[in-house]
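Task 17 of the worksheet. Students: predict the tertiary structure of the chain below and write it out as structure tokens. Keep your answer in the requested format; marks are given for formatting as well as content.
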Amino acid sequence: MLLNSLQDLSELRTHKLNILWTHASALEQTCCSRTTNILQHSSTEISRNVPVLDSTMFVRHNTEAWTEPPDFEFEPSPIWHDNPEIVTDEFAKVFLMNMLSRSRVGLNKIKGNVGLKQQEVKKLQASVQGSQDKEAVSSVCFPPLRRRVKTDYSNFSMRNKRWPWRKMKK
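Model answer:
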């Protein structure tokens, strides 16, 4: 009973998978046919492009007098409740100059801190590099001793699960 149910479940799963694959295959075929149609249309349009007519159209278009486009204008945003006027009174200028001077002072303080931190990082990198160099030299001069363990594979069997590498010491 259980085996029959599992077999039915497996067959249903395979059937649904076949439906998905069939649908995917049909979609891929439609995509390929559409691509083929687009490429055929492009080929016919490319053949209609006559170089002499293309040059003539370019010349006619560029014989007209060129007028410079108008400058961009400020467009107020309805979301931010802007108005079309830009504030240019003395109070606004003084306020912005004060903000600029405070920002410059803060920037100078931060530059000093950043310089100190960069020097600390360089010192740490040098010390780390020095310690790595010492370790590399010591490992070349004095290689670690390794014991060779002889393994006898003649007694190895899967039945009693004696694995030879479990006996090895690192």
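Marker's comment: The two ends are 54 Å apart (CA to CA). The chain has a mean pLDDT of 80.
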